[in-house]
Design brief:
Elements lengths: L2 H14 L7 H9 L2 H12 L2 H14 L14 H18 L7 H41 L5 H39 L5 H25 L6 H14 L3 H28 L6 H6 L1
Helix pairs in contact: 1-2, 1-3, 1-5, 1-7, 3-4, 3-5, 4-5, 4-6, 4-8, 5-6, 5-7, 6-7, 6-8
């Protein structure tokens, strides 16, 4: 990876960061920050869109149910997307792995778990530095200095963002990619500890699915819909888009049935008169 490519990835991480996001958190944190979306831009920068997307798929599955309620951040996807994807891609390529194979998926999941910890440090480090700027701002306001408001709210946080978002991502991608490439070029994937790492990484996407089911499923019978979807996808060989269309049809049927029940209850015309039934 060249320094120019690392700088471009660092710029993308700045636009997707949780603390200061491009066009707000909707476009930044909840769009550009997601591994599947980020893999497209990383692929454009590295010159292999398909390979990076294949690497980003298991990472997206792993963190598919990640939300940030309040100030609680389980993992900052900025590091997962813009550090994990480039390093996993370089490592899989150096080891000669098939990007769509199980080994590459397991490697991507393992690296995403490690880089997620880095993202937490970057997120809370930026927040801590921003609190320092706010403390300086309050001290200046107590002295009657209103000219500091623009610097405290706009300029100083950008410094924090540059120091703890752009620089770490750029340096880790530039120097880390060289180290990872050298390591995996000589790494024997048949060694037991490498197999253990890949085995653990292969299980991690299932954790993301489990968290998603826990947040969506309200009663045990809801699992039948998920099992039906997996069964149809496996038996019919459906692609992701085709499975989405089938799911949309079932969702529409369920919506229409629910509306029919509500209209029947609220209309009253179709309701049965219990007194008349007893008289008969």
């Amino acid at each position: 990876m060249s320094l120019f490519q690392a700088i471009l990835i660092g710029i993308m991480s700045c636009t997707a960061a949780s603390t200061i996001a491009c066009l707000g958190t909707t476009v930044g944190n909840y769009t550009l920050n997601r591994p599947l979306v980020a893999s497209l831009f990383v692929g454009l920068i590295l010159g292999d869109v398909q390979g990076c997307i294949l690497i980003g798929i298991p990472m997206q599955v792993m963190w598919i149910a990640l939300v940030t309620p309040g100030g609680t951040v389980a993992s900052d996807l900025r590091a997962v997307s813009y550090i994990g994807i480039p390093l996993a891609y370089v490592g899989a390529k150096a080891a000669g792995m098939n990007f769509g194979g199980d080994e590459a998926y397991a490697l991507a999941s393992s690296i995403s778990a490690m880089t997620g910890v880095i993202g937490i440090s970057l997120f809370y480090g930026t927040a801590m530095m921003n609190l320092i700027w706010q403390h300086i701002g309050w001290a200046q306001l107590d002295k009657g200095n209103l000219d500091c408001l623009g610097r405290v709210t706009a300029i100083y946080p950008l410094i924090s963002h540059f120091v703890l978002s752009f620089l770490p991502v750029t340096l880790l991608c530039y120097y880390g990619s060289t180290a990872v490439e050298s390591l995996f070029a000589q790494l024997n994937t048949d060694v037991w500890y490498v197999k253990a790492m890949l085995a653990v990484g292969a299980v991690l996407p299932a954790v993301g699915i489990a968290i998603l089911l826990k947040s969506v499923v309200s009663k045990p019978t809801d699992l039948i819909y998920f099992l039906l979807g997996f069964a149809l996808a496996k038996s019919m060989g459906l692609t992701l888009i085709a499975a989405t269309v089938v799911g949309a049809v079932f969702a529409l049927i369920n919506f229409n049935m629910t509306m029919m029940k509500l209209s029947g209850v609220s209309g009253g015309g179709a309701a049965i008169d219990d007194d008349d039934e007893e008289d008969i």
